[in-house]
Write a structure and sequence with these properties.
Length: about 425
């Protein structure tokens, strides 16, 4: 019997190991689901499929990125969208009747506003101003609003937020699924299209546009419209900060999902009531930091403008400070090889920003020629270009090769999506 038991134990372990190997192999062999972006309509249908396939994290793949830094931030946004869908699934499982009531209310409100040009519901509700209504609550069984204080703007705002949060958290992508058949695109040009709802532009007056890039169609975020364009990230650090905000929101969503799954919250209303604190506090902290970044950007851009003007004077041979009494401005123009000039263009923004951050902001307009030359030559040396003299610059080919190496060392590799 002992021998038989040993044989059974060995076979049991072998079967367990084989099962683990099979599971790992199946996971490794699982192919990445591809969603077509060959045409604007294909990209739109892919967005609908991603939602239905419970792959909302992939929606970020359909958004046009102007730079690798923006693509990295969109990766964070995709994680957030996936977590939002996960929270919605947990809410659906825990509070099915409440979710159905919220869906029916959203359908009724959409029907009432269909001819008024109102923005869509669901996740889109985060981008529209909630309308005042008599019952901000509703949707959660037995969850009535407290009486009194209805005339106070703060209480009104809180109720409006909680009412919106309930719908968004419980059914963030429901509007897309319910209105899939009503969505379409229309070509504006060979590489530009607009998204339509019932044949009319969606989200007027801004609209939702798509563009063709490298054989694929992408949704374009309206980042170039005022006043948004004043605060849109332009540098890597700013995009990274926006990515951190996406991560903070995702952490809040994950925490809310845990509260739903563990039974810590008793209703959707209770969940929505706590959502404000979880989302607004990190957002407020982030805004303070981002405002500082905007100040750094302003001072950096101002210094870069001065640097560019001083550089032009140096190339023209102007000596505004150390010029002798009899010298004539512009009498000794200079020239830099293309590779050296491009290297200066590449490193100057980074070096100036670093000096601004450490309160050592240079004043190029007040610099003498030797001081200006010393500043730029020091930058080139620090960045690995060697001992470069602006008065006796290296051959163009050598400077271009060094610049290529510099760029490769700082290349941003986008995070792959699953």
């Amino acid at each position: 019997m002992t021998r038989i038991h040993r044989i059974r134990a060995i076979w049991g372990r072998a079967v367990a190991v084989l099962g683990c190997v099979c599971l790992v192999s199946l996971g490794a062999c699982e192919k990445r689901v591809e969603y077509s972006q060959a045409t604007a309509d294909d990209a739109l249908q892919s967005a609908i499929r991603m939602v239905k396939d419970r792959r909302a994290a992939r929606l970020a793949d359909l958004v046009y990125a102007e730079s690798p830094d923006m693509r990295a931030m969109l990766g964070r946004m995709g994680d957030l969208l996936g977590s939002v869908q996960g929270l919605a699934a947990a809410i659906q499982e825990r509070f099915p009747k409440d979710v159905e009531a919220l869906k029916q209310r959203a359908i009724a409100e959409a029907a009432n506003a269909s001819n008024a040009g109102a923005a869509p519901g669901g996740l889109f509700a985060m981008f529209q101003r909630p309308r005042r209504s008599g019952g901000a609550g509703g949707g959660s069984e037995g969850g009535g609003e407290a009486e009194g204080g209805g005339g106070e703007r703060g209480d009104d705002g809180q109720r409006l937020f909680e009412a919106t949060a309930q719908s968004v958290l419980a059914d963030p992508y429901g509007w897309i699924e319910r209105n899939a058949a009503r969505l379409s695109t229309v070509g504006v040009s060979d590489d530009l299209a607009a998204v339509l709802l019932d044949g009319k532009p969606i989200l007027p007056p801004l609209g939702v546009t798509m563009r063709l890039e490298a054989g694929k169609w992408y949704v374009v975020l309206p980042l170039n419209l005022p006043p948004v364009n004043q605060y849109v990230p332009r540098r890597q650090r700013e995009w990274q900060m926006l990515g951190l905000l996406m991560k903070a929101w995702q952490n809040a969503i994950i925490e809310m999902t845990s509260e739903v799954n563990s039974g810590k919250v008793a209703s959707i209303e209770e969940l929505a009531s706590g959502a404000g604190e979880k989302l607004f506090i990190p957002t407020g902290i982030w805004f303070v930091g981002y405002a500082r970044e905007m100040d750094v950007r302003r001072r950096t851009e101002d210094t870069l403008r001065q640097f560019g003007e001083r550089r032009k004077k140096w190339l023209a041979g102007e000596f505004p400070i150390e010029r002798s009494a009899g010298a004539r401005s512009g009498s000794t123009p200079r020239a830099l090889p293309k590779g050296v000039s491009e290297a200066i263009d590449a490193i100057a923004p980074e070096k100036i920003e670093s000096l601004v951050r450490t309160n050592q902001r240079p004043r190029p307009a007040d610099m003498s020629d030797p001081d200006f030359q010393s500043l730029v030559e020091g930058w080139l040396k620090d960045e690995g270009f060697g001992e470069v003299s602006l008065l006796a610059p290296p051959p163009d080919a050598d400077a271009a090769a060094a610049l290529e190496q510099w760029r490769k060392a700082r290349a941003v590799v986008p995070r792959p999506r699953k």
